[in-house]
UniProtKB/TrEMBL annotation:
<feature type="transmembrane region" description="Helical">
    <location>
        <begin position="134"/>
        <end position="156"/>
    </location>
</feature>
<dbReference type="GO" id="GO:0055085">
    <property type="term" value="P:transmembrane transport"/>
</dbReference>
<feature type="transmembrane region" description="Helical">
    <location>
        <begin position="176"/>
        <end position="195"/>
    </location>
</feature>
<dbReference type="InterPro" id="IPR000515">
    <property type="entry name" value="MetI-like"/>
</dbReference>
<dbReference type="Pfam" id="PF00528">
    <property type="entry name" value="BPD_transp_1"/>
</dbReference>
<keyword id="KW-0812">Transmembrane</keyword>
<comment type="similarity">
    <text>Belongs to the binding-protein-dependent transport system permease family.</text>
</comment>
<dbReference type="GO" id="GO:0005886">
    <property type="term" value="C:plasma membrane"/>
</dbReference>
<dbReference type="Pfam" id="PF19300">
    <property type="entry name" value="BPD_transp_1_N"/>
</dbReference>
<feature type="transmembrane region" description="Helical">
    <location>
        <begin position="101"/>
        <end position="122"/>
    </location>
</feature>
<keyword id="KW-1133">Transmembrane helix</keyword>
<dbReference type="InterPro" id="IPR045621">
    <property type="entry name" value="BPD_transp_1_N"/>
</dbReference>
<feature type="transmembrane region" description="Helical">
    <location>
        <begin position="234"/>
        <end position="260"/>
    </location>
</feature>
<keyword id="KW-1003">Cell membrane</keyword>
<protein>
    <submittedName>
        <fullName>Dipeptide transport system permease protein DppB</fullName>
    </submittedName>
</protein>
<keyword id="KW-0813">Transport</keyword>
<feature type="domain" description="ABC transmembrane type-1">
    <location>
        <begin position="95"/>
        <end position="299"/>
    </location>
</feature>
Amino acid sequence: MRFFLSRVLSAVAALLLLTMATFLLVRLMPGDVTTSLTGVDGASQETKAAIAAEYGLDKPLPEQYVRWLGHVLEGDLGTTALTGQPVTEALGEKMVPSLQIALIAVVISVLLAVVLGTVAALRRGRAADKAASGVALVGTSLPDFVVGLLLLVFVARQAGLATFGYEPLSAGLWEWGRHMVLPVTALSLGLIGLLTRLTRTSVSETLQQEFVRTARSKGVQGRRMLWRHVLRPSLIPIITTAGLQLVAVVGGVVVIEVVFSIPGMGKLIFDGMRQRDYAVIQAATLVIGCMAIAVNVFVDLVYRYLDPRMRDS
């Protein structure tokens, strides 16, 4: 319980620092802050004064922060200049395809990497090891957007897959899948390469541990040996890395959504940066930062559960 409370308190402190950094993001942007917040360019002095009064920009900075934080806690992140709708509503609509792509990519990457890395460790130096190492090398060498472009050129039409856009699950599983295969593949390859290498190293090190040799001398073999004595301790660094990479994957979605013209959070951020819609950039920074903090807390808790040394301490 003490460990859990300490992680929660650390997360709260990190959230406060995140809100301060996000608040200052717009205030430190070059140009007029009223333009940054509203997207209204070339307004008269009277209009700027009215906007400043509406947003509380005529108040001292600490008072502005407290007022802004109150709005954030109420779910009010401002209005996007791109469409005129509330930023919370715009992000809510765009997050669905983004999170689907990111989560599916991470799950597929972990499953494939654990299989490839384990086979490579058990067949060290053989053909299976070399094949898995080759996949890992290709995955870690090619950027996500390059993989996406290669898939568009060489795979999409031949396989009958959708090359752009997004269809929700309500449109049917087939249509949803056709639109998800390419972006998920492009996003997964690099993570598969990273986790395959990590799994191979972790399993190889575990196989050399004294407790594994002791279990073998007692006649433990097969699946019981693999799962209970080899894979379970080997999964600790893999799950930790996968959890931390989830945030990086969400960042990678920004590029992938531009490549495949997917109307997700990444494309919203890209359009916001291009149109200088700082309300969108500010809100997206806050949301992604909150996700990063939540994932870190979750990874700490999972790590403590899997590692008996952490539980004992």
